Task: inverse folding
């Protein structure tokens, strides 16, 4: 258990924004968290807002946080059931996501190897429904353990009740800010079937491997290699990964855009809707590699906004707003941030 006051969050967000939290509380067990919530009820700080964070790899702090920041240090992995081809693991929310992926690939527990190299912690995987290379966390999530931040009551909810969608869940909507995720249960396969639905991954693997010899560790290695080529390391250049979600537009609007830009990339969602990569839209508006003061658009991947040094949250937010305006003016499409803006 660890409580700090007027505490800098610079090491707790991958944009490297230097803001402070009134109170920062880290817990290593569910009991430590529930005791803290009970104490808070009788403290002069009881009306302050609470925010649970992970590694801060999807957060943009706009100013100092005038409240309580919570962070899990529960990091254990428990095998709760095992059959011939399936294993269910109960994983602490404070474990680094990629350490969990490494543990699974090493032990031959399959299903999340395509999600190798994603920053952040296990708790946030269930909030964000992280995804990459044709796989989403919700493909393997079975249940989520929660603690109510107001009452301290524990709750277990099934995957169905998490209402998962593209980078979306009940925790970003109806349950926003209400619960701490303390454990996530994943159902993994002990039989390996590579998911090569993502074209760039398939091409890479086709060139390098005999398909029959592929292992989850090979996929992990190739995914990390692909990611390293296009994403900046937050330890070197502050960022939060993809800043915007890929917009889904009506087919009618897409057809109009395609008339002017025959090369527009797209994925068909259904007969009436098409998804267009936000990176392409941003690049067409001339933003790739541009800086506005200390905030910039990454030159290898325009979906990533970066802190070029000394940026405050407002610098990044203003750049994001300018990008949204130009994409709207040129294509009539509204971009929506994937990153969570935090203001208090
Ligand atoms: C270089 C880079 C690459 C990335 N690539 C990808 C990618 O390929 N795919 C992808 O999906 N994302 C990607 N991301 C985004 C990010 O890694 C994910 O969103 C990740 O899940 C965030 O985890 P975190 O622990 O840092 O959560 P934070 O950013 O700290 O928090 C994210 C949200 O989850 C909530 N939260 C976190 N932990 C808990 C908890 N225990 N209980 C309750 N609420 C909680 C927070 O309140 C917040 O709303 C990338 C980010 C970076 C910097």
Result:
């Amino acid at each position: 258990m660890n409580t700090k006051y007027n505490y800098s969050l610079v090491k707790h967000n991958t944009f490297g924004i230097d803001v402070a939290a009134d109170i920062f509380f880290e817990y290593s067990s569910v009991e430590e968290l529930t005791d803290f919530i009970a104490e808070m009820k009788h403290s002069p700080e009881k009306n302050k807002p609470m925010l649970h964070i992970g590694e801060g790899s999807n957060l943009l702090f706009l100013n100092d946080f005038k409240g309580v920041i919570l962070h899990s240090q529960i990091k254990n992995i428990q095998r709760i059931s095992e059959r011939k081809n399936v294993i269910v693991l109960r994983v602490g929310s404070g474990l680094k996501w990629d350490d969990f992926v490494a543990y699974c690939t090493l032990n031959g527990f399959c299903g999340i190897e395509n999600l190798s190299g994603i920053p952040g912690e296990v708790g946030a995987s269930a909030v964000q429904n992280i995804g990459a290379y044709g796989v989403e966390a919700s493909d393997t999530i079975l249940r989520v353990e929660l603690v109510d931040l107001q009452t301290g009551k524990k709750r277990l909810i099934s995957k169905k009740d998490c209402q998962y969608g593209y980078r979306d869940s009940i925790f970003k909507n109806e349950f926003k800010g209400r619960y701490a995720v303390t454990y996530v249960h994943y159902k993994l396969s002990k039989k390996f079937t590579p998911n090569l639905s993502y074209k760039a991954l398939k091409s890479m693997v086709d060139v390098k491997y005999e398909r029959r010899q592929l292992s989850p560790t090979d996929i992990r290695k190739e995914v990390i290699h692909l990611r390293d080529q296009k994403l900046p390391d937050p330890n070197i250049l502050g960022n939060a990964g993809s800043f915007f979600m890929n917009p889904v537009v009506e087919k009618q609007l897409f057809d109009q855009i395609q008339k002017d830009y025959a090369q527009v990339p797209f994925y068909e969602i259904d007969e009436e809707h098409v998804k267009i990569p936000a990176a392409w839209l941003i690049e067409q508006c001339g933003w790739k590699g541009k800086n506005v003061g200390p905030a910039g658009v990454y030159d290898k991947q325009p979906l990533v906004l970066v802190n070029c040094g000394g940026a405050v949250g407002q610098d990044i937010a203003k750049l994001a707003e300018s990008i949204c305006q130009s994409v709207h003016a040129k294509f009539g499409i509204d971009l929506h941030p994937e990153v969570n803006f935090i203001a208090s």
User: Anything to note?
Assistant: The chain has a mean pLDDT of 96. The domain at 238-342 is CATH 3.90.78.10 (Uridine Diphospho-n-acetylenolpyruvylglucosamine Reductase; domain 1).
